[in-house]
Design a protein that fits this description.
- This protein is α/β, with parallel strands linked by helices and about 350 residues long.
- About 35% of the residues lie in helices and about 25% in strands.
- It has two domains: about 140 residues, NAD(P)-binding Rossmann-like Domain (Rossmann fold, 3-Layer(aba) Sandwich); about 180 residues, Dihydrodipicolinate Reductase, domain 2.
- It has a nine-stranded mixed sheet. A six-stranded parallel sheet has the order 3-2-1-4-5-6, with helices on both faces.
- Helix 5 links the parallel strand 5 and strand 6.
- Helix 4 packs parallel to helix 5, helix 5 packs antiparallel against helix 11 and helix 9 crosses helix 11.
- The longest helix is centred in the last third of the chain and has 20 residues.
- The radius of gyration is 20 Å and the shape is globular.
- The structure holds nicotinamide-adenine-dinucleotide (NAD).
- Nicotinamide-adenine-dinucleotide binds next to loops.
Length: about 350
C-alpha cells in the first residue's frame, strides 16, 4: 500500500477543503464520500469524481478504505469515531475532538484499544508561522514566556449560523449549545489555543471567564473574555467575539521576559537583547516560507504527515492526547463563566 485510501464522512462546509487536501497530496487518495443528506454527498462526489454513500456502516464495511476524515457536527464526533475505530479505520477527526472531556477520553481509549490512529485536525499547526515562532522561542529569542494573549474578535453574518462560511450546505447545529458544545471559543478560538500549545508546550492550570450571548439569536456565546494562569507561572488572556460590529483585533501575541512575538505573516518579533542579527529594541519582520494556498497547502501537508504516520507506523500529527488539550481549556472556560469563579484545568 503506497497511498492511504480515505473516505470523507460529512460533506458540508469543511469537507471541500479536506477533499482538496487529500486529492492534492501525494500519499492520500480520496476513494469515497458519505453524508446522511444525499444531496450534500452527491455534490461533493460529483466535484471530486468519486462514489458516494449515505450510511456510515457502508463506509466502514469497505475493505478499500484505510482511513476516514470525520467532518460532522461536534455532537456526532464521538459515536462515528467509536464506530470507525471498531471497524479498524484510522481516523482524522475535525476539531474540536468532541463537545466534552468524557467523550474525548472514550474516543482516545477506543482508538488505542482498536490499534487505530487518531488525529485531531488542528490545521493551523501547519502554518509556517507556528514552526518559526517555536524555533525562536526554543532558542530563547524572547526569554521566558510570561503572557499568551489570544484575541479573535470579529462579526459572523447571520448566514454563518446555518450555512457556515461557504454556504455549501444548510444545517442547524452551530446555534445549539448541546450540539456544538459552544460558540466562538470552541468553534474557532480552540484553533489558537492549540496553536499556542504547539508553539510553547505550555498548559494553563486555571481560567476565569465571563461570557454571554448578547446580540445573536443563538444559544452559544457571542462575546467572551477570560484570564488564565499557566503551570509555569505565566498569565494569559483570551478575548473573542462573533458579534463585534465593525470588527476588532485578530491578534495573537506571546510576551516574553526579553521580547515579544506577534503571530502573522511576516512573523513580528521584538528583542531586547542581541539575537541572531535582529535589531535590538525594535520590531523585526521575519519572512516566512510562502505557501501556494494558505488554506489548502496546510491541509495537503497535514494529510501527507498523517498518511506517512499510518503507512510507516509512526506517531500521527496532533494525536488525540494532544488534541484534547484545547478542549479541556474550552470546557473549563465555559464552566468558569457559568460559576462566575476561577476553574482549575485538569490535564
Ligand atoms: N478546521 C476548520 O477550519 C474548520 C472549519 C469549519 C468547520 N470545521 C469543523 O468541521 C466539522 C464539520 O463542520 P462543518 O462546518 O463542515 O459543518 P456543516 O454543517 O457545514 O456540515 C456537516 C455535514 O455533516 C452532515 N452530517 C450530519 N450528520 C451526519 C452523520 N451522522 N453522518 C454523516 N454526515 C452527517 C450534514 O448533512 C452536513 O453535510 C466540525 O467539527 C467543525 O468544527 C473545521
Amino acid at each position: 500500500m503506497n497511498k492511504l485510501r480515505f473516505a470523507i464522512i460529512g460533506c458540508g462546509d469543511i469537507a471541500g477543503q479536506e477533499a482538496e487536501g487529500i486529492t492534492k497530496s501525494k500519499s492520500g487518495e480520496l476513494k469515497l464520500v458519505m453524508d446522511v443528506n444525499k444531496e450534500n454527498a452527491e455534490k461533493l462526489a460529483t466535484k471530486y469524481k468519486v462514489p458516494f454513500v449515505t450510511s456510515t456502516a457502508e463506509v466502514l464495511s469497505r475493505q478499500d478504505i484505510d482511513a476516514v476524515i470525520i467532518c460532522v457536527p461536534h455532537f456526532l464526533h464521538k459515536q462515528i469515531t467509536l464506530d470507525a475505530a471498531k471497524a479498524g479505520k484510522h481516523i482524522i477527526i475535525e476539531k474540536p475532538i468532541a463537545t466534552n472531556t468524557q467523550d474525548a477520553l472514550e474516543m482516545i481509549a477506543a482508538c488505542k484499544k482498536a490499534n487505530v490512529k487518531l488525529s485531531v485536525a488542528y490545521i493551523l499547526r501547519y502554518q509556517p508561522m507556528v514552526a518559526k515562532a517555536r524555533e525562536l522561542l526554543k532558542k530563547g529569542a524572547i526569554g521566558k514566556v510570561i503572557n499568551i494573549t489570544i484575541q479573535q474578535v470579529g462579526y459572523k453574518p447571520e448566514s454563518y449560523w446555518t450555512q457556515g462560511w461557504t454556504k455549501a450546505v444548510t444545517t442547524d447545529w452551530r446555534t445549539s449549545k448541546a450540539k456544538s458544545g459552544g460558540g466562538i471559543l470552541i468553534m474557532n478560538v480552540s484553533h489558537f489555543i492549540d496553536m499556542m500549545y504547539a508553539i510553547t508546550d505550555m498548559e494553563p492550570e486555571r481560567v476565569y471567564s465571563e461570557y454571554d450571548t448578547f446580540a445573536t439569536k443563538v444559544e452559544v456565546e457571542d462575546m467572551l473574555v477570560a484570564t488564565l494562569r499557566y503551570k509555569n507561572g505565566a498569565v494569559g488572556l483570551m478575548q473573542t467575539s462573533s458579534t463585534a460590529f465593525g470588527g476588532g483585533d485578530n491578534l495573537n501575541r506571546i510576551y516574553g521576559s526579553e521580547g515579544q512575538i506577534i503571530m502573522g505573516d511576516p512573523l513580528k518579533i521584538y528583542v531586547s537583547k542581541p539575537f541572531e542579527g535582529l535589531e535590538v529594541n525594535k520590531w523585526n519582520d521575519i519572512p516566512l516560507e510562502q505557501m501556494e494556498n494558505v488554506w489548502i497547502t496546510p491541509r495537503v501537508n497535514y494529510v501527507e504527515a498523517f498518511a506517512d504516520a499510518v503507512l510507516n507506523n509512526k506517531p500521527v500529527p496532533i494525536p488525540g492526547e494532544e488534541g484534547i488539550k484545547a478542549m479541556l481549556v474550552c470546557n473549563a472556560t465555559y464552566e468558569s463563566g457559568l460559576k462566575h469563579s476561577p476553574v482549575n484545568i485538569k490535564f
